[in-house]
Structure formats: structure tokens, C-alpha cells
Design goal:
This protein is elongated. The strands form 2 sheets. Strands 5-4-3-6-7-9-8 form a 7-stranded mixed sheet, with helices on both faces. A two-stranded antiparallel ribbon has the order 1-2. A hairpin with a 2-residue loop joins strand 1 and strand 2. By secondary structure, the protein is an alpha/beta fold. Helix 1 packs across helix 2. The chain is about 40% helix and about 20% strand. The structure holds S-adenosylmethionine. The site of S-adenosylmethionine has 21 residues, from helix 7, strand 4 and helix 10.
């Protein structure tokens, strides 16, 4: 095999990925080349004119072929950055999304000591909150045992194993205890909207993480019904929502007895988080 330099390999890969409809082909090609070379993406420009070894070149071409089949970059490199930290990601968990960082911002706006994350997936919400709130402890619950294994590994990687616990649970069914913050980014895509999702999402992410198989609101019904039994007076419930769900989820929270129910938009101006407080002073 000829020893092409990194720049030529990148240009070929970007062309190939663009041709199959990958949105940000150049960026993805750079991340995959850095991964094949075993270097941080930020160092790529330093080695771009060097010849690439046959082994790294073959690894890169294999990664590009998988990306061309629309496998997400996070699955190919096994990691995803979220709120400034790296999380392991596999096909068993939702790829942490930048819009979920809005839920983090909203939750960190007030102090908490004990947090419950329902549908924890990779653990990105729970573990970020614990890392940002020294001394707090928490539980991540999920109905998927393989997802919990990923979350547990992420807790260990981030040095949070002593402050984070994980439970196999259908929402709160197997959860004991009282919390001052409950957060959730539940599956909220309606069954009828699944076909419109990008191939990366619908082919490679766990459907259990994406949809309830119904109207996209059943998780919120379960969570708003169960949360009061696990919240201190004055405790907060904060859920991520799809952009069209603010009215329905706000009404559920108000109906369940929450006060100060507020809708928080994301950086693109779309409704993204609904927050409510359980009455009392705590
Ligand atoms: C949208 S993903 C969110 C993952 C992660 N919290 C994040 O924000 O990246 C929803 C998660 O809810 C979990 N889930 C789905 N149904 C559940 C249920 N009945 N009880 C608990 N977790 C559930 C899925 O396994 C998945 O990990």
C-alpha cells in the first residue's frame, strides 16, 4: 500500500462521506483519522503532512467505511464529550446530546445534596451533576442492564464511583429513598416520528432510549406520577423534552401538584427543559 499523507487521506474520506449524505464530513473524517493514529484530535494538524503507516491507513479506511454506512462517530471512537468531560459510549446507550447540557445548566442553578437520574443511559447527566456539585451523591436508574454497565464504567473512569450508585429499575419502581433533585431525559420520540430520524439514530441507537412506542409522553406520565413520592419538600423535578411537548408536560406537572413550573429553552430557542418544585420548604 502506498504511504499517502494524512491530508490526502482526509480529502478522500471527506469526499466519500459527503457523497453519502454525512452532514459534517470533514469534521468526522478528522476525528476518525485522529482515532486511527491514536492521537488527540487537536494534534492532527501537526502530523497532517506526514506519511501514514499502512496499519493506521487501513484502520482509517475501515472506520470511514463504517461511517459511510452512517454508524455514529461516537460508536466508532467509543467516546463522546459532554459538558467538558469524556464519556464511554456504546450501542447500548444514547449518544449524549449537546442540548442535554441545558438540563445540566438548569439543575446546577440551585444546590442539591442527593440526586436521582431516571433513564441514566451512559450516566452523562448524573455523573456531570455529581462532578459539578462536590459532596453530592446520587442514583442512576435505567431499565437497561447493558446501559447501566456503561454508566458504572463511566463513574469509575471519572473517579465518581463512591458518590454514584446504579439501579436496574422501571422508572422509580426499584428506587428507595428521598432526593432533593430528580432529573430525567426520557425517551420522548413518538412512534410515528421514528421514521423521520437520521440513519445514525434510527439504525444504531437503542430504540428503548428513543421512543416509548406510543405518543412520546408516557415516560413523563410515569415520572410526574412517581416523583412526588421520592422528593423532599422544596425538591425539584427537571425533565428534558422534545420541542413540541412543553405544554403537555407542564400540564402534567401542575396536575401532579408541582409549583413554579417553568419551561426553559435551549440555545436554539426551542423548548428543552420543564422544571417544577414540590411544595414546601425542605
Ligand atoms: C433518551 S435516553 C437518555 C440517556 C441519558 N440520560 C442521556 O441523557 O444521554 C433514555 C433512557 O431511558 C431508559 N429507559 C427507557 N424506558 C425506561 C423505563 N421504563 N425505566 C427506566 N429507564 C428507562 C433507556 O434505557 C435510556 O437509557
Amino acid at each position: 500500500m502506498s504511504h499517502a499523507d494524512g491530508r490526502a487521506l482526509l480529502a478522500d474520506a471527506a469526499r466519500r462521506l459527503t457523497a453519502v449524505g454525512v452532514a459534517d464530513a470533514g469534521r468526522d473524517a478528522r476525528r476518525l483519522l485522529a482515532h486511527a493514529l491514536g492521537i488527540a484530535p487537536g494534534r492532527l494538524s501537526v502530523v497532517l503532512n506526514d506519511p501514514v503507516s499502512d496499519e493506521a491507513g487501513a484502520a482509517f479506511l475501515a472506520l470511514v467505511a463504517r461511517r459511510a454506512a452512517r454508524e455514529p462517530v461516537s460508536h466508532l471512537v467509543g467516546r463522546r464529550s459532554f459538558y467538558g468531560r469524556e464519556f464511554r459510549v456504546t450501542s447500548d446507550v444514547l449518544d449524549p446530546r449537546p442540548e442535554t447540557e441545558m438540563l445540566i445548566e438548569a439543575a446546577l442553578a440551585a444546590p442539591f445534596r442527593r440526586v436521582l437520574d431516571l433513564g441514566t443511559g451512559s450516566g452523562c447527566i448524573l455523573l456531570t451533576l455529581l462532578a459539578e456539585m462536590p459532596g453530592a451523591t446520587g442514583i442512576g436508574a435505567d431499565i437497561s442492564a447493558p446501559a447501566l454497565a456503561v454508566a458504572h464504567q463511566n463513574a469509575l473512569d471519572l473517579g465518581l464511583g463512591d458518590r454514584a450508585g446504579f439501579r436496574l429499575s422501571d422508572w422509580t419502581d426499584s428506587i428507595d429513598g428521598i432526593f432533593d433533585l430528580i432529573v430525567s431525559n426520557p425517551p420522548y420520540v413518538a412512534a410515528g416520528e421514528m421514521a423521520a430520524l437520521e440513519p445514525e439514530v434510527v439504525r444504531y441507537e437503542p430504540h428503548l432510549a428513543l421512543t416509548d412506542g406510543g405518543d412520546g409522553l408516557s415516560a413523563y406520565r410515569a415520572i410526574t406520577r412517581a416523583a412526588p413520592g421520592h422528593l423532599q419538600p422544596g425538591g425539584r423535578l427537571m425533565v428534558e423534552i422534545g420541542p413540541s411537548q412543553a405544554d403537555a408536560v407542564s400540564a402534567m406537572m401542575i396536575g401532579a401538584g408541582f409549583v413554579a413550573v417553568t419551561v426553559i429553552p435551549d440555545l436554539d430557542g426551542r423548548d428543552r427543559v420543564v422544571s417544577g418544585r414540590w411544595p414546601g420548604n425542605g
